[in-house]
Each structure stands twice: as structure tokens, then as C-alpha cells.
Amino acid sequence: MITLESGTGNYTTIDHTSFNYFAGNNYLGLTNKPELINKAIAALISYGTNFAASRQTTGTADIHLGLEEQLAQFKGKEAAMVFASGYLGNKLIMEYLRDQYSVVLLDSMAHSSIIDGIPRAVETIDTYAHLDMNQLEELLKKYAGKRALIASDGLFALTGEITPLDEIHRLAEKYDALILVDDAHATGVLGENGRGTQEYYHLENSPRIFQSETMSKALGAYGGFVAGSEEMISAIRKKSAFYGASTSLPPALVATGAAALSYLAEHVDLKSKLVSNIRYVKIGMKQIGLETSDAETPICPVFCSSQAEAKRLSDFLMENQIIAPAVDYPVKTGKFIVRITVSAAHTAEQLSHLINTLKIWNDGRN
Ligand SMILES: Cc1ncc(COP(=O)(O)O)c(C=O)c1O
């Protein structure tokens, strides 16, 4: 395992050496922006390190309410709620919807936070092959008579693929199902305003779709959030033991999330910068002859022929001052992946160094 000796922006330090950082999920390059850091420091000075109380007792501060208002506005929804971990958002939504479905249908590569979030009392859980809409329809037919909740990642963390939410939605309408989308990697990235997979497919007004999101990736902050109707948000607040009985999000993180949303609103060019960096890398990879995913997303995997080859590539990149890990968790993809992620902040020199290095490796392999 790599041990970092600095933060992670375009570069990181390991063993006293600076590396180009093409890993993690800092898709908009926000984690070391002074605009965010200064707000975090100001909140630490004003509020201290922690509220040390749950949201339902004495742990709700004005900055939580302000952030939730900003998130609701960002999402174009009536209300939003923040909590300590994006991992728990799927659970909160599935618990809230509990009376409205009796079957859960999962993409076979659904993130562990979706699987862990399924309420214990759900009797039927079934899986369709990754992105396979025919199999999903077969399952919907198989369980006709029971109402299904279809659950999938919006943007898959390892492969960079976007789930076909338009087709899932068409099937959900046909079979009267509900949909849960884990948009941890899509928030700030997909859709015209960065509102995620639902916006990307122009399905923002569908009452069937529920999104679980996080501030921990593209937004450069930390903590999960859910946005929706007033009714839904206040029901989740009342119903969730986790929300009611765990410590509220600490001041520095609340302030960072709020600053990230303001920064996004003021820097509308960030998304186009990201897209142009993604295009450069994905087109470059294809020209070299590397296998990657087609979707225009910041996750640019190199699909290798074995885990050993993936490890060799990751090591070769590191020898050339590039960090991009060979990954085989948290879901089994059946592929051997070196996960390269591109951010809006990477420079032209860094991108061309990446592509040149991949080319040298590929030439040596062939
Ligand atoms: C698809 C997906 N959902 C949820 C999470 C959890 O989000 P957080 O790290 O904000 O808890 C992650 C990864 O961290 C993820 O990849």
C-alpha cells in the first residue's frame, strides 16, 4: 500500500518524491483550492473541531442548514440533508422506501454500499448481469406482482461506465418499479450542471428515481447527501436511527462542502476543462491501442489481460512518476484494471506525460 506524505492534487508526495497523481476521485481538482481551504479554516476557528452531538439533539448548526439549502438549490429540489458518510446514503433511501417495494434488483457490479444498505427484512434480492437490460427485464417479468426497486451505480467507479438510466427508467415505467441510483462518482461530473446521472439523461423530474450522493469525490469535501421533496427529507430525518443517533458533520467539512458548491457556481468552465482532459486521455489511449471504456467520464481504466499485467503497468507508471493503482475492489468486475482518473486540474504537460508513458509501456509489451 502507498503511504502519502502530502495531500492529493495534481501531484502527491511518496517517499520524499513528487508524483503526478492520476488516482482517487478528485475529479474537479477541488481538494486543495484556497477558496475551500480558507472556508474550512474559518469554520474551525468559529465553531471548533466538532459539534459532538447528533443532528436531532444539539448538533444542528446554522452552517448545516445553510449547506442543505445550497445543496437543494444545486440539485433543483425542495430540500436536502447531509450526513457523515456517502456510504450510508443508499441505506437511508432504501429504508425510507421500505414499504413501497418487496424485491431488490441489482446490477451485478453494484457498489458494496448498495448491497450493505438493503434492509434486512427484504426477502428477495436478485442480480442482473452488468448493464444487461434484457436480463433486467427478465427479472422484472419473473417478479411481476411484487414491486421492484432497481439499484445501480450511476457512474461505475472502476470501469467509468454510465448506467443506462434511460433504459432502466423505461423498464421501471413499464413494470411500475422504483430506481435507486448511487451517484457518488457522478455528482459534479455528469449532466449540464453536474447534478449527476438523472440530469445526464434528462430524467430529473421522474418521481421513480432516488439518488444517493456524496461530497467526498468531485466536490472535494466529505459527507453524504440526499436531495428530494420536503416530505422525503423530513421522513428520512425522522426515520433513520443512523441520522438521529450519530454525530453531525463537523464544521470544517460542512464549510468545505458549501465552499465547493459556491466554487462550482462561479467556475462554470470547470466541467468543460474536465471534458477536454478526458477526451485527450481517452483518445490518446485508443490511439495507442489500449483497451478502455468509451464513456466520456473521468475514470479512464486500462483493461489488462491479467492481474500480473495490471500490476506491471501500475509499477511502470510509478517508475515514471505517475500514480495509478491496479485495483480489484470493492466490486468484482471480472477485469484487470489500472484505474487512471483525470481531473479538470491536470495540466497539458501532465496529460501528455501520461499518454507518452502509456505508449512506451504498450510498445514494450507488444
Ligand atoms: C459507488 C460508491 N458509492 C458510495 C461510496 C461511499 O462514499 P463516501 O466515500 O462518501 O462514503 C463510494 C466510495 O467511496 C462509491 O464508490
In short:
Residues 23-357 form the Aminotransferase class I/classII large domain. This protein is an alpha/beta fold and 366 residues long.
Structure description:
- The chain is an alpha/beta fold and 366 residues long.
- It folds into 2 domains: 11-22 and 268-365, Aspartate Aminotransferase, domain 1 (Alpha-Beta Complex); 34-266, Type I PLP-dependent aspartate aminotransferase-like (Major domain) (Aspartate Aminotransferase, domain 2), CATH 3.40.640.
- The protein contains 13 helices and 13 strands.
- The protein has helices at 34-47, 62-75, 89-96, 112-117, 133-142, 165-174, 197-200, 230-239, 241-245, 251-266, 269-288, 307-319, 348-365, and strands at 11-14, 17-21, 79-83, 103-107, 124-128, 148-153, 178-182, 209-214, 224-228, 299-304, 322-323, 326-327, 336-341.
- The strands form 3 sheets. It has a 7-stranded mixed sheet with strand order 3-9-8-7-6-4-5, sandwiched between helices.
- A hairpin with a 2-residue loop joins strand 1 (11-14) and strand 2.
- The mean pLDDT is 96.
- The structure holds pyridoxal-5'-phosphate.
- Pyridoxal-5'-phosphate binds at residues 85-87, 111, 113, 153, 157, 182, 184-185, 214, 216, 224.
